[in-house]
Design brief:
Blueprint (H helix, E strand, L loop, with lengths): L1 H8 L6 H11 L4 H14 L1 H18 L3 H13 L1 H6 L1 H10 L7 H10 L4 H23 L4
Helix pairs in contact: 1-2, 1-3, 2-3, 2-9, 3-9, 4-8, 7-8, 7-9
Length: 145
């Protein structure tokens, strides 16, 4: 049951994988299962977030509430779209993989929805980024670094 709780804790925006791993280790749970459950939870939440953000952006574009701001931002992104999309998966991996505040799954999914990236690329980038971030947090929790 504790591992299921860790899956759900790793889905919370502020906590994510970076807070769930130390919590699981503090509860004296199996380190491998802690890592895997937090990795699964933090990766799975990226799919509905990405789809929800896309829906919200499309809704605002169609209804015209923030149409001016969204169009302005999209025009700037479209000018650099080739550069951004060519490094997008690697960028998502690095963005999520470095365990800093506000660089997790939620932020990466929001950025990917603005860039209109493919779902497969986003999920792979988030997965590998979470794997990297989990290793770093795991090492810090065990005072390896």
């Amino acid at each position: 049951m504790e591992y299921i709780n860790l899956i759900f804790f790793s889905m919370i925006p502020v906590i994510e994988l970076r807070g769930a791993i130390p919590m699981g280790l503090a509860l004296d749970l199996n380190p491998l299962l802690v890592y895997l459950s937090c990795l699964i939870g933090s990766t799975i939440i990226g799919i509905p977030i990405l789809l929800t953000f896309r829906y919200i952006l499309n809704y605002f574009k169609l209804k015209g509430y923030f149409k001016y701001l969204i169009d302005l931002f999209e025009n700037k992104l479209r000018k650099r779209a080739k550069q951004l999309k060519s490094i997008s998966v690697i960028g998502i991996i690095l963005f999520v993989g470095i365990p800093l505040p506000t660089t997790g799954t939620w932020s990466a999914a929001g950025i990917a929805s603005l860039l209109e990236m493919r779902l497969k690329d986003v999920v792979l980038g988030i997965f590998f980024g979470n794997a990297l971030s989990g290793c770093i947090v795991f090492a810090i929790s065990y005072h390896i670094f």
